[in-house]
Amino acid sequence: MKASIARLWPLAIAPAAFLLGSCEAPGGISPIFPTPVSPNGQGIYNTYIGISVPAIIVFVLVEVALLWVVIKYRRSKQPAGYIPPQIHGNFTLEIAWTIAPLIIVLGIAGYSFVELQKDFQPVANYDFEVVVSGHQFGWNYTYPEGFTIQQEGTLAGDVQPFVVPVNKLIRLRMQGTDVIHSWWVPAISGKTDAVPGYDNFTWLKVDRVGTWRGECAELCGSGHSTMQIIVQSMEQSDYDAWVQKQKAKAAAPAASPSP
Ligand SMILES: [Cu+2]
Known about the structure:
Mean pLDDT: 85
Largest sheet: 5 strands, mixed
Low-confidence stretches: 17-28
Distance between the termini: 65 Å
Number of helices: 5
Strand content: 15-25%
Strand order of the largest sheet: 3-2-1-5-8
Bound molecules: copper (II) ion
Structural class: alpha+beta
Shape: elongated
Radius of gyration: 26 Å
């Protein structure tokens, strides 16, 4: 008996080893939430913590109660033929353990729904709008100045970044040209579907200079895994210079047609 329990230890350790190992994954996608850099990312992070911490407390309490019963009332410590107290049909207990989980689950539903409403409504007081269009396999970002950044999917290296200025509220109008894709940068916002023939909205307001990674989060075909997303934020002056460069590039005749 002792030996068989000892053999189970790797099963308990494996998930922890996986989680810790994955934190350093070069793709930047970690199973643990990254530091949020936009208010909607912060809202999702708070929801995640707000649900996970009570869930972990409930889990620990249930497991401790289970272990306590298993150890304290184990058969080998009871007299032969012992039958424990029978509580089946205890009305108060059954009402309590029906109502308590119901309250917890409704609480989680309400909490999540409020967060969803905050993040996926089209914001009105935005500084500018970028049209984000998903295709097999990549993303196009069309800026108000008229130029488009092509973030063509690849596994060979980094994709071209989607550049934004810091501390500006930017509305993202999500579109799709072929199948449904989903734009997701965990540090910035939740998953937002890019659906052909239908505009979806999300937004971002990045509070620091840096680079963040994401992925297409909707299985969209054989090149799905190539659909990396890189968001790069810069100071307003650097951003203005970058916009001028993109405008000049768009105006100049293309040296060779892009594939
Ligand atoms: Cu996709």
